[in-house]
Amino acid sequence: MPELSHRRRVLVLAICCMSLLIVSLDNTVLNVALPSMQRELHASVAGLQWTIDAYTLVLASLLMLSGSTADRIGRRRVFKTGLVLFTLGSLLCSLAPSLESLVAFRMVQAVGGSMLNPVAMSIITNTFTEPRERARAIGVWGAVVGISMAAGPLVGGLLVDSVGWRSIFWINLPIGVAALVLTWRYVPESRAPKPRRPDPVGQLLVVGVLGALTYAIIEAPTAGLTSPRILAFAAVAALSLTGLLLYEPRREEPLIDLRFFNSAPFSGATVIAICAFAALGGFLFLNTLYLQNVRGMSALHAGLYMLPMATLTFLCAPLSGRLIGSRGPRLSLLIAGTTMTASGALFAATDAEATNALLFTGYVLFGLGFGMVNAPITNTAVAGMPRSQAGVAAAVASTSRQIGSTLGVAVIGAVLAGGVVGVTSSAPHAPSASYTAAFTAASGPAWWIITACGLCVLLVGALTSGAWARGTARRTAERLEPAAARASVETGR
Predict the structure, then answer these.
(1) 350, 358 Cβ separation under 8 angstroms
(2) Which of 237, 278, 360, 473 has the smallest CB count inside 10 Å?
(3) Under a CB-based contact definition with an 8 Å cutoff, are residues 85 and 115 in contact?
(4) Which range among 103-112, 227-236, 391-400, 475-484 shows the weakest confidence by mean pLDDT?
(5) Are 139 and 130 in contact (CB under 8 A)?
(6) Contact 352, 361 (CB under 8 A)
(7) List of residues 6+ apart from 253 with CB closer than 8 A
């Protein structure tokens, strides 16, 4: 990629952030619309899970393929294709006549989305090469997630209450078209010097692991843990994972280079991403249904209630980026793990939902923690790897996020579905007493799961951000690309 002026680099960052905005906004808006979708499409809790997880599942399955493909054939080319598919998928979702078609069109969105975030991060990594400048750029990138979390519930609630849930997909259309035009005009093409070959077998094994595991978790509450169908899908997931671990090391250019995980910061970032986004996915799913189906709020009212969490995420994301640039990722990770654990424990150990003061305290703590955690995940995952593999490293980090979101919604939804099965809600205005009691009882174990995710962020963050961890990153970079090792590790303070 040719050297760009400061103004051009800022413009490239803004264009990449537009792609993140529509993907992130789509997820937050969708959560607010779930109860409305449930009523109009006559969906079960499992059906609601699939509207989210069909997207994140396809996204997680294709992210690494998209990252390596972009490194090989051109990042701008893949990025533009992703914008077209995501915008088209959004239009189709707004026209979906049934739950099944909505799930299918969400998968079209996901194919496009898989070409956006990891490729955009790779473009940013190759545009901002100075460590401090890159950390600040990633901080801005993280702030966009906060913007989407702040705007999503409000915009989504307003659209759902005034126009209907289908309108939530319309907002992606003008942003997607604008990002496509600007990308064509201003983003330069770039490729990896030595891109890797396609790995179709590895790709199929990844799909087998994620798809079978997610299906087993979501459908277990209704089919039963010991049903032949659930056991079969669990076996497919286990066999696919075994095959992946045995097959990938034998390839010269694997889809997933398992040597990356010899770096403790990279492995830590992967685990932290899964746990943090599992907590977020479960948190949003649980609270959206609670506020609208138990408290009987409208979509807009529920969005306003969750604004403290979104605002803290927005404010803390750029602060986390600056902290990483000056002090490294350790402090951000410790703050994130502590506050996310405290938030989950507050809801799990007390009846915080019933008291507005405690409810908002829990929201503020979670928003603070999630705002601090996103930037160090991206920075650590990408910074510890050679620049020539930036697309793959960014894709692994993004995949970890989507795996976390998928598992969070699947597990929390399964726990919730197991507790409210057979009990219906007359929400939004008059929730039944039986549904309220069942939901409250089922949410206790769900909150403990979210607490455990926060604790994992804290412990893994502390373990993988010290001097020992940096040593493993340096040795891993030397094995992957000796000539780039020194430059790579300088960014992973």
Answers:
(1) yes
(2) 360
(3) yes
(4) 475-484
(5) no
(6) yes
(7) 196, 197, 199
The structure tokens listed for 107 are 């998968």
How confident is the model over 152-207, as pLDDT tens digits? Answer: 888 888 888 888 999 999 989 999 999 999 999 888 888 777 666 778 888 889 88
Query: What's at 351, amino acid-wise?
Result: D
Q: Compute CA distances 484 → 41, 151, 197, 394, whole Å.
A: 53, 40, 21, 17
Q: Is the peptide bond before 428 cis (omega within 30 degrees of 0)?
A: yes
Q: How far apart are CA 210 and CA 170, in angstroms?
A: 29
Nearest-5° Cα angle at 46, 377 to 42: 130
**Structure tokens of 400?**
């970890």
Rounded Cα gap, residues 29 and 174, in angstroms: 16
Number of DSSP helices (H) and strands (E) in the chain, helices first: 18, 0
Widest pairwise Cα distance in the chain: 66
User: Angle at the Cα of 377 (from 372 to 378), degrees rounded to 5?
Assistant: 110
pTM of the model: 0.81
Q: By the 8 A CB rule, do 64 and 392 touch?
A: yes
Amino acid at 474: R
- Are the C-beta atoms of 248 and 277 separated by less than 8 Å? no
Q: Is 98 helix (H, G, I), strand (E, B) or coil?
A: coil
Please, where are the H alpha helices in 95-130? 99-113, 117-127
- DSSP letter string, 430-473: ---HHHHHHHHHHHHHHHHHHHHHHHHHHHHHHHTSSHHHHHHH
